[in-house]
Design a protein that fits this description.
By secondary structure, the chain is an alpha+beta fold. The protein is built from three helices and three strands.
Length: 64
C-alpha cells in the first residue's frame, strides 16, 4: 500500500489548532485594496475557522 500524501496547496492555506479546529486566513487582502472600504479590510484582517462538514474535508486533505 502506498503512502498517504498531504495535499500541499491545502496545507499552506489551513492549520489545525490544538483543539482540532481548522483555521484559515481571509482572501481578498492582497490586491486592489484601494477599492475596498477600510471597514471591509479590517474585517478581513483576522483569521477565521472552517465551519461544519467542510472542516472534516480539509482535515482529510492535510493529514500527515
Amino acid at each position: 500500500m502506498g503512502k498517504v500524501k498531504t495535499h500541499k496547496a491545502s496545507s499552506k492555506r489551513f492549520k489545525v489548532t490544538g483543539t482540532g479546529k481548522v483555521k484559515l486566513s481571509h482572501c481578498h487582502r492582497r490586491h486592489k485594496t484601494g477599492n475596498k472600504s477600510g471597514n471591509k479590510l479590517r474585517q478581513l484582517r483576522g483569521s477565521a475557522y472552517v465551519q461544519g462538514a467542510m472542516a472534516a474535508n480539509v482535515k482529510a486533505l492535510i493529514q500527515k
